[in-house]
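G.,

No rush on this.
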Amino acid sequence: MNDVTVAVDDAHVATVEIHRPPANYFDAALITELGDAYETIDADPSCRVILLCSEGKHFCAGANLGAASSPADQPRALYRQALRLFAAATPVVAAVQGAAVGGGLGLALSADFRLASPSSRFSANFARLGFHHGFGLSVTLPALAGQQAALDLLLTGRRVPGEEALSLRLCDRLVEEGALRAASHALAVELACSAPLAVRSIRATLRSGLLERVQAALELEASEQERLRGTEDFREGVVASLERRMPRFDGR
């Protein structure tokens, strides 16, 4: 793997770390690497919990809108790889430092648990880019924050700091700055102390139907993203984001 490493410790925790600092932008290649890592861990009985984390300042700032994209990075192709993360049998704890923005928020919400710090921030900024949300957020965001809060976050694209994220259930625990990785690993160890067959069985029951719902959502999200990608509003949203200014949308 080029941008993802896996390290398994004696506590049966597999640390899966993204190495694209500081923003850890993703593309189809990186999501494919994560899917490969998850599937390898699923097949290893010594691995009971995944700790998902990132090197650098931010957990994941989503896709790099300023970079050239390949056909593999088109929504449908990328989301075929993302679906593999939801299909994993091993529980996932995500350590969310800095920003989890756009698709990066979708990646964070694909985990079973999220830990954050007061300086962490969560944002579904798609509408600010003239774009439709993706990465299964149609399913995961309302399930955690509720329908009305999800509508607020998706339509405004506003940033949610760590303390509000905790109140909205976007993260499960808020820990002090500098202690995030250790606290996330401690939770992973706590989960790994439970009977592994029982953990997977209980998790599968509680997630029954989730994979099918996410798959259907990804199809619709990809379709809408492809449609809106050709609009003037999307072009303006991307340029405004890169220029760090408010966009001027015309509804075209």
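When you get to it, here's the other one too:
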Amino acid sequence: MFDLTGKVAVITGSSRGIGRATAEALAAHGANVVISSRKQDACDRVAEEINSKPGGRAIAMAANIASKPGLEGLVDAVRGVWGQIDIMVCNAASNPYFGPMSGITDDQFEKTLRNNILSNHWLIQLVAPEMIDRKDGSIIIISSIGGFRGSGTIGAYNLTKAADLQLARNLAVELGPHNVRVNCIAPGIIKTDFARAIWEDEVNLAKALHGTPLRRVGEPQDVAGAAVFLAAPAGRYVTGQTIIVDGGATITVGGI
């Protein structure tokens, strides 16, 4: 049910954090994974570590998600090595601004929209045609529980993550007849560099965990397990859905 032997998976933003944990988990279940982020040397290090362990193989290909030609080059290069892409994990994202939306600049807003929504659209449109032809494929978008919540400090980021939820639903409708599945994962607070400002600060952390039943910050591996499920035969009848991985934070009143 979780065998991914021979499948090819591309994971953006996979040199660290959730992306890296997801790549490692997919490889451990047999997938050949593509490590991609902006810096080639960081990608190389992760690929080398994965290749030192039993399981699937890894290659490293740097790409900037803000560049459509860069993403086209990434997809073409992967096909040149492994022939096809079976699993697309759109993980990379950015949040260049912290504060009320009244203070965000146009450049910051446009960067958030481009990196968190438009780049996912580009990647999916690049890989979907071959999945349609094969009548098989899994597309996974890493969203956030922020997509379900308003915020006075990360409103633009949350807006894009809410859009990702709808992007998955729309594409699930379009691609479902071709046996191509599209889903989201919405993590809560995960112990990554991206969320360091929250979990390193005791006051912020206490506020964040207030109302979280599991009473802890998530680990990247907690999200990776959901990705394996959605990529594998175990998730073959799941599409258009969002799996929330947040320790229960969204079922209570509290948190940030």
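The helical segments are 17-28, 40-51, 68-82, 106-134, 155-175, 196-199, 202-209, 220-231. Residues 50 and 58 are 6 Å apart (CA to CA).

Enjoy the weekend,
O.
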